[in-house]
Sequence to fold (520 residues):
Amino acid sequence: MKGVVEIEFVISVFVFITTVSFVTGIVISNLPVFHSASTSETLKSKSWQYSEMLLFDEGAPLDWQLPDKDIKRIGLSTGSRYFLDESKIIKLYDLCSVGYAAVKDKLGVDTRNDIVIEVSYLDGSPVASSVTVCGPNVITQIRPSFQTVRLGVLNTADRPIVRIKVIII
Amino acid sequence: MMKGFARIFEAIIASVVILASLTFFFVPNIQASGWGDAMIQNLAQDAIESAYFNGTLTRYVKTDDRAPLNAFMTRMLPQTVDFSLEVSRTVNDIINIVCVDCTNDDVNELKVILNPLDFSYKERNISIRVQPLAMATNSVPADTNILFFFNKVLIKTYESKINSTLSNGGSVVLLSDLTQQDVQGTIGTMFNLTWLGTSSSTAEFDDVYDGSKVSHYVARYYANNFKKNLPDIAADTFTFHYSSVRTENDLKNIAKTPGPNSNAFVRANYDIVNSNGRSVWISDYTRTDHNDISTKATDNLTKASVMWASGEKFKLDMTKKYPAPVNFRTGIIVFDGDVYAVELIVWRIYF
Fold:
């Protein structure tokens, strides 16, 4: 009776294959959930890091906002904690208007991500020519994004409070 | 034949059970990261720091201008949170004193001791308000900061009511000479006093410079009332009737005779009931002529002690607010002529 398989064997193989398929299916279906959560956490972390860098770091060189400087790193701080340099905000706006990609590179943003930086007074009016100081020309609405809002003081005579919003996409 | 089908049927049931149980183990379990809470806390810290560096916070604390301060903070914080601002380590802007079982003469005497009742401290307007209270028949008003006693016997009589006030963060001040029996009874416990035996009548500040001691804070208020600086008043002396109360090797002596194991004349106590409440005992002194230089100095010491006993904690809210069970506290130490702490308490409206 070689070549003849008993019905018990057929059923047991069927049950085994079904079980393995089921488990594999569950694991695979969970992957997007974990990936989405991981991406979300990464975005939050990056958004936080860039907000810290922009608010508390002066950039390199310290006077990078001046003409003909070889900009290595961008930061908006005057050097005093919570104080922001108005001229650096305006310079960042100018740089971004000319080439977002170059600024993104100076900020060290991953090629897979985009960054949007908004700086405004508490009443919503812009510090530079526009509230959006830096960002890509086209912003997708379907990619996940996360924003961190920070507050600082502008280094002008009346020391107004400004809101910095950093959105990582 | 039937045996074979029974095994197959059994195997199918077992596999269904196994598959069903597997779904339990493969449910994605993602822990909440707490970013939402962190962001609110961080924004609150940014808000209070920015308001301080911007100058707005100190300006409104000085002027006690609560409406614009609250409006200012509202603009900085998200609309989904509510907040409360608390100032501590400096004298309250309004000090409500209840003079327990006092006659009109007692109330007037207390007002003369604390004169002027409206004054400024480091550019802040402070107001002391004194009212009598028959404690046997009335409850203590909710906004009372200090229960003031001229009569030491009443401390024992109203012990439970006083403890209730202390438990709620209120204070008690006693201006009276004490006997050994007083010190070894309820008064000794409440005011943290022990008996020395030998008596003396002149005192000076324990330490005007050590920021960990109550005497430093009282000395600051004392110096301000005389419009002087701390070094100018460090050697000021005060004359009392007598005192046989012992100074302790702690932070609570305010006025005493110099040296160790000396006589205490003004002593503070704090965290008395449920880690709340302050008390000050002041040895009595000759109060017949409040224009006398010596009496003026001791009156001012009493007033400065009352300022410390105010609790040194007050809110800058528009209305009485009750923070949600889950709330976030963030604060800064403000250096602005005076040194004090401002805390911002933030909580979600929907929790």
